[in-house]
Structure formats: C-alpha cells, structure tokens
Amino acid sequence: MSTTTERHARTEAELQQMAKDHLWMHFARQSVMEEGGPGVPIIVKGEGHHIWDSQGKKYIDGLAGLFVVAAGHGRKRLAEVAAKQAEQLAFFPIWSYAHPAAIELADRLADYAPGDLNHVFFSTGGGEAVETAFKLAKYYWKLQGQPTKHKVISRAVAYHGTPQGALAITGIPAMKAMFEPVTPGGFRVPNTNFYRAGDMGAPTGSLEEFGVWAADRIEEMIQFEGPETVAAVFLEPVQNSGGCFPPPPGYFQRVREICDRYDVLLVSDEVICAFGRIGHMFACDAYGYEPDMITCAKAMTSGYAPIGATIVNDKIYEPFRTGDRAFYHGYTFGGHPVSAAVALENLDIFEEEGLNERVRENSPIFRQTLEKLTDLPIVGDVRGDGYFFGIELVKDKATKETFDDDESERLLRGFLSKALFDAGLYCRADDRGDPVIQLAPPLTIGPSEFTEIEQILRSVLTEAWTRL
C-alpha cells in the first residue's frame, strides 16, 4: 500500500507570508511583497487556456505561461505519462549511459528538424541550450584549426538567456550591466523592427529592401571584426524581446548566404518559436532556411516538465563521431527520463490534434482581430506571426514618438500589467525595447478567444490613454 504525505491547504495569508519570507521570484521586484500591498498573485490551477488564482478568480492565459503551455493546461495524459515514467525510471543521467525516453525523443526531434540536423544534445531549458550552442561553436572551430573563431553576433534588444555565455549573446545592455564583465565576444547588429526602420537609418520603402539592409549589417560586422574571429550568428526566427519582430521576406536566405561565405555557423534560437508558436515544429521551416544548430525548450513538453535541446548538423557532429574526442559539457538533469517521456506524449498531442495546422489556419484571424486596436491613439503597431504577436504603444501615432523612462514606468509597471490582470488577461507588458504588450496564448485557442482578448485590451488601453 502506497502512501503520500498529506500537506494541509495553506490560507492565503500563510502563503503570502511564506512567500515574503522565503521566495525570491525571477525577474521581479521583491518590493511587491515587502511594501505591505496585497502581495503577489498566486496561481493555483490551469485548465485549457484559463488559469485561476488563490482567490478563485479566472484569467485567460494570454502568454501560455511564458511561451510554454502550447497544448493548454490540465492535460491529464501528460501528468499520467510523467507518473508512469517516474515509477519505472525516475532518473538516470545520459553521461555515457542512455535510457529509452531520451533515445526516442532525440530520434523524433532529428526527424522533425530540417536537412541534416541529426544530433540532439539535451539540457533542462533554453538558456542552457544556448550556452551549449555557444560552447560547441567555439570548440568546433578549434577542432577545425581555427582557434581565433570565438566571437558571436546577435541582434540589438534580443534575449538569448541568463547564463554568463548566453548573456554575452543577449542584446539588452540593461540586463547585463549589473553582471559585467560577462563572457567576452558578443557583438550586436540591428534587428528587424521595420516599424522603427527610419530610426536605424534603414530603408523604409519596402520590407524586402529593409530585410536585405538588416542582413547586410551582419556581413558588415563579420568583415569589421574579421571573419577569422567570428564563430556563429545567433538569431531567433521571430525576435521576442522588443515585441515580436518577424523576419522580412528573404532575410534569412541572405543571412544563410553570408554565413556560408565567411565560414560562420548559423544558430536558430527557437526556444520560443519551436513547437507550434509559428505553426511549424521548427520555425526555420516557416521561413525557409536551414541553420547549423537549433536551440529549443519551452513548448517541447508544453511546460509539464523542464527540458531543452541543442540540435546540430552532421558537419558540427563529425569531429566527435570517431576516436577519443568528447564534448566535455553536460547537465545532471539533461534529457531527464520523465521530461523526455512527457515531451514524446506532448508531440503526440501536436500531431493528433493538428496544432501546427490550427495555428497556420487561425493566425490571419488573430492578426486581423488585434489590428482592430490600431484605431486607438495609443496603439502604434501590431506585428508578429503564428500565435505570437506584439502591440507597440506610442505617445504620438503620427510621429511614432515613444514614452520616456518615467512614462514607461508609470504606464507599464504602474498601470498596464496590473490592469490587464485585473481585467482577466494574463499577458506581458514589456519595455526592454519600446513599450509593447505581448501575446502568445496556448495553441488550442481560436477566433472566439481572439475576440475576448481584443475586447479586454481595448478596454484597458482606452483607460491607459485617458490616464496619460
């Protein structure tokens, strides 16, 4: 007879006090718990595209947790698979050993990945997947007799993770200042924010022309630093930070040409964009390019267990195929049996329910619904792809004038985040670039939910404008 410990249900006051005393939240101001306010929102339940807090209030999950819960909350079959795997083999490392779940998942990911990206290195999350790709890129070039190729290029305002190496690739100065000096070798080029093309001195006539200009800045940086020093270019298919910048037509084809010309690896950072966010298992397929490596994580398990992966092509794997050479890198929980089993079941759900096809079919309707908000004076731009959209907020539509730091602080942190949550929508109000509201809901929602989201946004943004 099996028994489990019965934990008594805590009261709201107990939980808030325990959180205040002991819980250090991520990317959060601890002062929200210290200054005698209502405390921190405590989320206790999820079902489909809704979440509930400890007070019993229901919200639309407009961010899929954190771009994660692709198949929706409350999937019992994923919990059951996790329990079954934990009973059979709860843990074993993949350090010189293997287990069936990791083997099968690697095979499946290689099958989904384009071209000859056939080899899967597991981690426990996206930052670790990026860290793996960074280390592997540097080691690969050393093995090719080009040890000076160690620099990496990424885009302005792009987020690639928090470990020291990934932080060097991240293009948000304010996120790095307090940790400097970070790992050396990270260099930045302009991103694909067409709405702000004029501010970058870029052509504003056509998307295609802008795309060529943006890609050519990568070539310029490679030439400036010296091709013999550049190991890799890290790019998200749709850049998240700054508010959903899709690639202009032809952009990635041009980037691929540039990387090939200068012997530079192309890494597609798909921690957010893989597994349906753009309507494909891997977003590089949506935009027609083949990278040398793909980093992925979040939606691989729909968040029901933590996992990450770096998928590499035959060229990068070749030096490790034979002989006594090893990649001295790994993580205790990388390719965890429970996580890998959950990922396999989650990918079954994707196929059975046609989630990628659903996103491709509904994305234009989602866009059209959100574009209705452009009649509001505070909404400057609606952009994105798949089930991944950003709404940029402006002070003046005609001039595209943005908010200064104080206004942004009052608008986003002082009002919008809480007002949207109070109105029943969990999403992200972000000012790591210009102020934006980001939406990335579970892939299971459809047109009626799009309308509900638009109505909540309309109400709150109208009030925000009157407050300004």
Molecular structure report:
40% of the residues lie in helices and 15% in strands. The chain contains 16 helices and 15 strands. A seven-stranded mixed beta sheet has the order 4-10-9-8-7-5-6, sandwiched between helices. The protein has a four-stranded mixed beta sheet with strand order 1-2-3-13. It is globular and about 65 Å long. The model has no long low-confidence stretch (mean pLDDT 95).
Tell me the number of strands. Answer: 15
Largest sheet: 7 strands, mixed
| Net shape | globular
Give, in spatial order, the strands making up the sheet with the most strands. 4-10-9-8-7-5-6
Poorly predicted ranges: none
Tell me the number of helical segments per DSSP (H or I, 4 or more residues long).
16
Give the oligomer, counting copies of the same chain as homo and different chains as hetero: single chain
**Structural class, from helix and strand content?**
alpha/beta
Radius of gyration: 22 Å
Helix share, percent? 40-55%
Instruction: Report the β-strand fraction as a percent range.
Output: 15-25%
Mean pLDDT: 95
Q: How many angstroms does the end-to-end distance come to? A: 63 Å
List the helices and strands and how they pair.
Layout: H1 12-22, H2 31-34, E1 43-47, E2 50-53, E3 58-61, H3 64-67, H4 76-88, H5 100-112, E4 117-123, H6 126-143, E5 151-155, H7 164-169, H8 173-176, E6 186-189, H9 207-225, E7 230-235, H10 251-261, E8 265-269, H11 283-287, E9 293-296, E10 308-313, H12 314-321, H13 337-353, H14 355-371, E11 379-385, E12 388-393, H15 405-422, E13 425-426, E14 428-430, E15 436-439, H16 447-467
Parallel strand pairs: 3-13, 5-6, 5-7, 7-8, 8-9
Antiparallel strand pairs: 1-2, 2-3, 4-10, 9-10, 11-12, 12-15, 14-15
Helix pairs in contact: 4-13, 5-13, 9-10, 14-16, 15-16
